[in-house]
């Protein structure tokens, strides 16, 4: 069995978590009595996070603990300098006691920060927690409050389950913020078919994400194909692997519009080259330097990218579906590896949605159109059958022309159930199952120059989260979230519904979890309130993590079905309206403004 490729393929070290043990600085018995329990608490926190987190590229998460406890401003400054040298991207302050807030807090404006105020009675850390949060709030430094529900004894360095959940939520979201900072979004082409999400808003990327924007014209693909600017040995290996593992599916085009067998052979050669070139454009390839193409070998340090395709490309050359689907998957001819975040139609807003989901789940994402709401009545009218089970109240048909990752087949398993797992947990057997579950169908006739669309149906029973960032005039970015499940429809029902759209494209039947009110009153209302034609789909119910991450980036959430008790935002958010959570989120994000502006 090949070993998954765990590597940082981008420039920049992976961010670390800084642990700040703060202490009552008064000497003469007070500080001395607290040194050991305070440092032990910090070490326990660091140990817990390191044992339970990985970066999305599979590398272990490192924690950096301050050299000493922090009782005053000099030690705070010394710790900040150590964190700067060590590449810390977020901080967690821990304390079991009262300390002097203004002298000990972390004041870095870009660093996501949390305070774990130990719930104890001997030297109440909760008092420091409240005072330090007030100081952060007054200084305009939003900070997350972590406070255990149950009282512990001083010297008890165990971490209660409720504290563990908040530590993991905060740390994973903070690592996402720090990881994407300074990376690139690569736009390959421009706007596809007049879709507004394809318009690259540099202010959004720079001010909210801390990212830079890179651009290439799609003619760069033609140049590299015609001049052989790709690894020839890898191309032959990739083409052989593709022929062996990517079986052709149904061709639904009328006979007079079908590609000949010779044309299809050429199409496969082209789409494999496109995949190699897109990857090289994103992250570079040292092989190109050996071939004399030093500039091309550098890549664009792109953590996410998009390919315009339609129509300037697809009117003349094969579609980008193979390129997008295989790169977005957790495996290819080189083995099991981290998926690339590559959006079809250069929908950069969906690419960012995919990127955030990937950073939080470590897994591949499904790129899809939010295509159709099928009511129970409409299904019964066209099929003669009633929807049952989770699908009884209707389903949303998520389907696009074929760029969804093959992980989206649901052929991986976790505890015996369908799943989309972090790449380092995927077996070769599961890779083969994903490949076997997908067929590659000839592109429909509105792609006149051929190519192949991925055809599969996602297995039912997977907890999924739909997400999408939209840009709203005079508001800026907003995030919408819908947690739910994939469902399987009876084969005869699926076939009728699928063929009314396109049977050669990947289908995920999705049912959101309903609340009975607002945007989640029923399935129709969810569909009716979705703000774009596209969405990104993550495995698992990760709405709480997305909400936490959005608050760090100052992006309000306009629509979600996450229980209120699971929402974790900076403590200052409640000051904007504790009884109006959604409105408070908007007001807080507007007041503090983009993280990097």
From TrEMBL:
Record: residues binding Mn(2+): 345, 369, 534
Cofactor(s) of this protein: Mn(2+)
Keyword Manganese appears in the UniProt entry: yes
GO CC list: cytoplasm
Chain segments annotated as transmembrane: none
Keyword hit for Cell wall biogenesis/degradation: no
Residue stretches making up the L-fucose isomerase N-terminal-2 domain: 183-362
Catalytic residues, chain numbering: 345 (proton acceptor), 369 (proton acceptor)
Domain L-fucose isomerase N-terminal-1: 14-182
Gene3D superfamilies: 3.40.50.1070, L-fucose Isomerase, Chain A, domain 2, L-fucose/L-arabinose isomerase, C-terminal
Molecular-function annotations in GO: arabinose isomerase activity; L-fucose isomerase activity; manganese ion binding
GO terms, biological process: D-arabinose catabolic process; L-fucose catabolic process
Entry's EC annotation: 5.3.1.25
Entries under Pfam families matching the protein: Fucose_iso_C, Fucose_iso_N1, Fucose_iso_N2
Domain L-fucose isomerase C-terminal positions: 398-560
Pathway assignment: Carbohydrate degradation; L-fucose degradation; L-lactaldehyde and glycerone phosphate from L-fucose: step 1/3
Catalytic reactions of this protein: L-fucose = L-fuculose
Name of the protein in question: L-fucose isomerase
Native source species: Paenibacillus lutimineralis
Lineage: Bacteria, Bacillati, Bacillota, Bacilli, Bacillales
